[in-house]
Structure formats: structure tokens, C-alpha cells
From TrEMBL:
<dbReference type="GO" id="GO:0045892">
    <property type="term" value="P:negative regulation of DNA-templated transcription"/>
</dbReference>
<dbReference type="Pfam" id="PF17932">
    <property type="entry name" value="TetR_C_24"/>
</dbReference>
<dbReference type="GO" id="GO:0000976">
    <property type="term" value="F:transcription cis-regulatory region binding"/>
</dbReference>
<feature type="compositionally biased region" description="Low complexity">
    <location>
        <begin position="1"/>
        <end position="18"/>
    </location>
</feature>
<dbReference type="GO" id="GO:0003700">
    <property type="term" value="F:DNA-binding transcription factor activity"/>
</dbReference>
<protein>
    <submittedName>
        <fullName>TetR family transcriptional regulator</fullName>
    </submittedName>
</protein>
<feature type="region of interest" description="Disordered">
    <location>
        <begin position="1"/>
        <end position="20"/>
    </location>
</feature>
<dbReference type="Pfam" id="PF00440">
    <property type="entry name" value="TetR_N"/>
</dbReference>
<dbReference type="InterPro" id="IPR050109">
    <property type="entry name" value="HTH-type_TetR-like_transc_reg"/>
</dbReference>
<dbReference type="InterPro" id="IPR001647">
    <property type="entry name" value="HTH_TetR"/>
</dbReference>
<dbReference type="InterPro" id="IPR041490">
    <property type="entry name" value="KstR2_TetR_C"/>
</dbReference>
<dbReference type="InterPro" id="IPR009057">
    <property type="entry name" value="Homeodomain-like_sf"/>
</dbReference>
<dbReference type="InterPro" id="IPR036271">
    <property type="entry name" value="Tet_transcr_reg_TetR-rel_C_sf"/>
</dbReference>
Length: 205
């Protein structure tokens, strides 16, 4: 029986590269962490759902926390890449703040599993890794703060502290992961645009 199970596992993963397998582990772990929670999900659960052996998981990740870190780190990588592209792109500061807010919300809602894990489970990382995440998060909040300050300077945005404005805008955007319904009447793109319009109208002159 054990040999038959191993054969099935090998046949399901044959032809995959190491990067493919690592990505598959992250994808399945993300879904399980959202469904069951980080504490309840074991590496055995992840291996069983994929069809791997548990030692195969350990080949790519030394611990379950390493898997969680890969998930949350990937979220920040994606956010930073998109934020910098928008911040350095065309448009006035106010237009780029709007675009950043839309993109921030859209990214959350298009990838609900990973972002739900990010916001619900990241506090379970080690203090060292949580400190690293906070440092990287500050990088993209500073991008929006800088643009908001430019919008204030040119008279485009309301003169409030950029740190307060950024925390309010991003905080309201983040909360959408709790109530957005992927099967609902509005798409992720439509919700993202409406959130940005609603929030920024309160800040525009």
C-alpha cells in the first residue's frame, strides 16, 4: 500500500521543476492556512493535499514558519514592485495616489487567500521576521506619504499630515479583505475603484 501511494505522489509531480514544487507548496499552504488557520494546519496536511511526502516539503522549507514567511514576504514583494512602478510613472501626485490606492485594494481582493493569511496570521512569525516585515511595509507606506506630500504642496490634496492620510487610506483599503465577496455583484476592480473614489473625495479640495 505504501509503495502504491508513493507511486501516485511521484506521478502527480513528475516533470515539475524545483521552483514549480516550491510554488505549489506555497499555494496549497496558503489555501489551508486560510481554511483551517496556521496553528491547526500541519506540514502533513500540506503534503497530503499536494500528494507529496513530508520529507519533500522539508527539502524546500525547513519549518512551517518558513512557509508562512514565504507567503507574507511574497505579498510585500508584489506590493513594493507595483507601488514603485506607479509612483515613478506618469500623472500628477494626486492621480498617482489614487492609482496606488486602487492597486493596493485590487491586489488584496484578487488574491484573497494570500492576503487573508497575511493579515490574520503574520503575527505568528518570529519577532525577527515580524520586524523585517514591518521594515519592508514602511518602504511602501513611505512611497504614498511622499506622493501625498507632493499633492499637498501643489494644492491638489487636502493639507493633512501625510502619515495620517496614508494610514487612513491604506487602513480602509486593507479592511476590504474582510467583507469583499468574490461572487458578489461588483468585481475586485470595481470595488477597488469605488473605495479609492470614496476615500479620496474626502481629501481633495
Amino acid at each position: 500500500m505504501a509503495k502504491a501511494t508513493t507511486g501516485r505522489r511521484q506521478s502527480r509531480t513528475r516533470g515539475q521543476t524545483g521552483n514549480d514544487r516550491r510554488a505549489q507548496i506555497i499555494e496549497v499552504a496558503t489555501a489551508l492556512f486560510r481554511e483551517k488557520g496556521y496553528h491547526v494546519t500541519s506540514l502533513d496536511d500540506i503534503a497530503d493535499r499536494i500528494g507529496f511526502t513530508k520529507p519533500a516539503i522539508y527539502y524546500y522549507f525547513k519549518s512551517k514558519e518558513d512557509v508562512l514567511f514565504a507567503i507574507v514576504n511574497g505579498i510585500v514583494d508584489e506590493a513594493l514592485e507595483r507601488f514603485h512602478a506607479i509612483a515613478e510613472g506618469p500623472g500628477s501626485p494626486g492621480e498617482r495616489v489614487h492609482a496606488l490606492l486602487v492597486e493596493h485594494t485590487r491586489t488584496i481582493l484578487r488574491n484573497l487567500d494570500a492576503n487573508t493569511v497575511f493579515y490574520n496570521e503574520r503575527g505568528l512569525l518570529s519577532p525577527e521576521r515580524e520586524k523585517e516585515m514591518r521594515k519592508r511595509e514602511r518602504e511602501y507606506t513611505e512611497v504614498m506619504q511622499r506622493l501625498y506630500a507632493e499633492g499637498v504642496a501643489n494644492g491638489e490634496l487636502l493639507d493633512v499630515d501625510p502619515a495620517v492620510a496614508t494610514a487612513t487610506l491604506l487602513g480602509a483599503s486593507i479592511w476590504s479583505y474582510r467583507w469583499f465577496d468574490p461572487e458578489g455583484r461588483l468585481s475586485a476592480d470595481e470595488v477597488a475603484e469605488q473605495i479609492a473614489k470614496l476615500l479620496l473625495n474626502g481629501y481633495r479640495r
